[in-house]
Amino acid sequence: MKIELYHTTDELKQLFRKEKDSRIATRIRAVYLGLMGKTAPEIAALLGYRRRTIQNWIHAYNKQGLEGLQETSGRGQRCKLNTDQLQWLRQRIEEGPRPEDGVCVLRGKEIQCMIAQQFSVHYSLSAVYQLLHRLGYRYVSSRPEHPKGDPEARETFKKKSVIRSGNSVLIILE
Fold first, then answer.
1. Taking the model in full, what pTM does it have?
2. Contact 79, 131 (CB under 8 A)
């Protein structure tokens, strides 16, 4: 197996010992073992990877040195919405539910319907949750309040029904 001499064996040894990312350290170690005269199947057996994976790492090192061993981003599916559409969605979520929505809290299902109506783009419910996560939203929300509820009655109930003292709570039912 031919390996370009970007680094000496001692340099590679120091590099894989100092590397904080274990995946990159393993790749550097594979190159080091290749320079020590080991074959790809032997390196694969030592490191617990497939022979072809080791050959890919060596090939990447031969082409680009240590840069070739770095992680590359995956090829996953791109977002179906463009930046303007994402901005609209973010603003719409920040506005909260409208009377025509017929709900007091926007959940994933409502957002899924909004996206389908506004942009004619269909997302699965799990994909909507992933999109919301990428936009910076979390699954933590305040308790919903009914639009026809009386805020004063709610506050009065809160004040009269619970007495807090240290770690204990006494609930008074009238």
1. 0.47
2. yes
